[in-house]
Design brief:
The protein has 103 residues and is an alpha/beta fold. The chain has a single domain (4-102), classed as Glutaredoxin, CATH 3.40.30. The protein has four helices and five strands; from the N terminus they run E-H-E-H-E-H-E-E-H. The chain has helices at 11-15, 31-47, 62-67, 94-102; strands at 4-6, 20-26, 51-57, 75-80, 83-89. A five-stranded mixed β-sheet has the order 1-3-2-4-5. Strand 2, helix 2 and strand 3 (51-57) form a beta-alpha-beta unit. It is globular and about 30 Å long. Residues 1-103 form the Thioredoxin domain. Belongs to the thioredoxin family. InterPro entries: Thioredoxin (IPR005746), Thioredoxin-like_sf (IPR036249), Thioredoxin_CS (IPR017937), Thioredoxin_domain (IPR013766). This is Thioredoxin. Keywords: Disulfide bond, Electron transport, Redox-active center, Transport.
Length: 103
């Protein structure tokens, strides 16, 4: 499944679904975010439709970023059935993403 882009207006509806959703908070000026992007894209491709991957631009969506207390980017949040299970700051290897979403 292609990576979807969330906004403050539609974020809640995008994560309050059945199954696993990976949310990446990022910004266009963030070097580590640029390094993490291809890893996230490959993960999303390999997950097919089993895992939803959503990106949130922190500069354009301050309400959602504040709600989840995003202090450093890239930040990755893992939701299952709409509930936050895990929050991690920094670049995650694809293997770690697979481990975090397997539970």
């Amino acid at each position: 499944m292609a990576i979807q882009h969330a906004t403050d207006a539609n974020f809640k509806g995008m994560v309050q679904t059945e199954g696993v959703t990976v949310v990446n908070f990022w910004a266009s000026w963030c070097g580590p975010c640029k390094m993490f992007a291809p890893i996230l894209e490959e993960f999303a491709r390999e997950a097919n439709d089993s895992i939803k991957v959503v990106k949130v631009n922190v500069d354009e969506n301050p309400v959602t970023s504040s709600q989840f207390q995003i202090m450093g980017i890239p930040s990755t949040l893992i939701f299952k059935d709409g509930k936050l299970l895990h929050k991690e700051v920094g670049i995650l290897p694809k293997g770690v993403l697979k481990q975090l979403t397997a539970s």
